[in-house]
Amino acid sequence: MELKLNRSRKTPRSLFAKNFLDHWSTELAGTDRVTSEALQSELETFAQMFEASFQTETSLDQSAELLLKLFSLSHKTHHTDKWLKMAPQVLTHAKTSTLDPNLRVKLLNRMGQTYRIQGQLDDAYNTHQQALDLCEKEIADDDFCIADCYYHLAECHREAHQHEKALEFSKAVTERPGFATYPASFQATAHNLCGLTHQQLEQYPQAIKAFERAIEIWGGLDETVELARSKSNLGYLYLETEKFDLAHDHLTRAIELNRNNPIEQGTVFNKLGIFHAMQGDLDVAIEHWQNGKATLNRSQQALTVLAGRISHNLGYAHLRKSNFVAADGELKTAVLNWKKLNNQFELARSLSATGELYHAWGKHRAAVEYFDKVLAILQNFPSETEFREETLREKAEAEKEAAKQD
């Protein structure tokens, strides 16, 4: 069933907006579907209706509530770019009108979340900081509101590879006196984030404890997608610590839970590929990565962080098998993906792999150029000293071989 956009002149725009949300909430309720061509085609018209309705027919609070409901749909279906065009309109009008502070904070946090998804980390951090400042100034007695802001700031630090700061903000959430009174889903999400930050700092016992707590909560809430995500995270941790049986058990269970969600299923295929690569079975690893790539392509999610990582891993696997042409194609796809997503750190990783490829291929001068690009990007990541030193070493080796060719 599709919602027809042709509306009667007698139908108020605000009612159209409400009907739109009711329709799509019902359509997507109880499913893990993350794409909808029909929804994508109708969002643009909704945006036009929304802009007219909040200026003429609805209160600012009603408009904000509609927009927050739409965020859930947009986020679930990966159409957040269109949502991001609408949110500033309400916040701009809020400067000259009265908008409930709670709604303003929620809108700011959803905007920041959207910026982060799109790789605009500075904009994301600044927007979440605005939300926190507003919360502390106007609704300081709302402890959960403050915790939610800290959670999003922690996510920004994690994405920026500022792991110590990410852990600091994560603990500012989970160690708050009122944490046990927060919604259970938020508690589970916060524990999962703590697990990720501990893992990135190689604090594995604390990470395992956090992931297991998240899994326990999600299991009680019957949240299949989130449960699978935390199981997948724990499985990857066991992979890092070479507990391969536990890793395989958690990752295969995550696949079973994610059969209707291509993004999450693709994530597990990626981790299973890494699992088999670490076992030395590159052919099986490549098969898993190709399955992940096909899953994303079928769901029209080829331009995502996950898609970039799968292309990167496929490129590196083909490099290790000396399939240089195939490796070059996959790494070029990954590089293009990172540039479009403005993800500089992942771009550096794929450029580095391309440098390794060209060095192995005998194209040493080109390899040097790629390593130079990596070093330029790493100037923005001062904590990545090991990555920088390894790149300098690889560049020196490529320069040595290039000199022999000159």
Give an account of the 3D structure.
This protein is mostly helical. Among the domains are: 59-72 and 99-179, Tetratricopeptide repeat domain (Serine Threonine Protein Phosphatase 5, Tetratricopeptide repeat, Alpha Horseshoe); 344-406, no CATH class. It is built from 19 helices and no strands. The protein has helices spanning 13-28, 37-56, 60-76, 80-94, 101-117, 121-138, 143-159, 163-174, 184-200, 204-221, 224-240, 244-257, 262-278, 282-298, 305-320, 324-341, 344-360, 364-378, 385-405. The longest helix is centred in the last third of the chain and has 21 residues, at 385-405. The protein is globular, with a radius of gyration of 23 Å. The model is unreliable at 1-14 and 28-35 (pLDDT under 50).
